[in-house]
Amino acid sequence: MKDKKHLSVSAIENGTVIDHIPAQNLFKVITILGLDRIPNQITFGTNLESKLLGKKAIVKIADKYFERDEINRIALVAPHAKLNIIKNYEVTEKMLVEVPNDISGIVKCVNPKCITNVENVTPKFKVVDKNSVSLKCHYCEKITDQEHMEYL
Q: How many domains are contained in the chain?
């Protein structure tokens, strides 16, 4: 009998794996991190089986380790994602992304009359719901939900 275990996505020597991305948010993660503009080798898979999500996506980025502000970006579109740091083909560190309490300079306010959309003011938000990711604008107090987020 053949072993039915196999890898759906190949291994990387060094870099980061972003796992447990909701399948429908894969391209949002790619866009929000600017992965379409970097020269690193990137492998992604979508609609993979997941006990937690039903269907998930995964991104493997060779020779790239994320800074805190990039991890905050991931949390906005994949609040339950996991990062695996890979060195010499081994997972050396695992971390859950966590939606921060405050967001600054990542998302536009949905209110077209908000000062951040009229003048050169950095958008700032208080996170009011970490599960579905809802943000309250610091300036106009308008709520922006995950479905309506536009990224800077």
A: 2
Q: Are residues 68 and 113 in the same domain?
A: no
Residue 110 has pLDDT above 60, yes or no: yes
**Which one-letter DSSP state was computed for residue 107?**
B
Q: How far apart are CA 40 and CA 111, in angstroms?
A: 36
123 lies in the same domain as 83:
no
**Alpha carbons 11 and 64: distance in angstroms, whole number:** 14
> 86 and 29: one domain?
yes
Maximum Cα–Cα distance for the chain, whole Å? 67
In a domain, 7, yes or no: no
Buried b (16+ CB within 10 A) or exposed e, 79-107: bbbbbbbbeeeeeeeeeebebbeebeebb
Give the residue-averaged pLDDT of 60-82: 92
Residue 21 reports pLDDT greater than 90: yes
For 73, the token pair is: 């970006």
Instruction: State which residues form the domain around 59.
Output: 15-96
Q: For the full predicted model, state whether its pTM sits above 0.90.
A: no
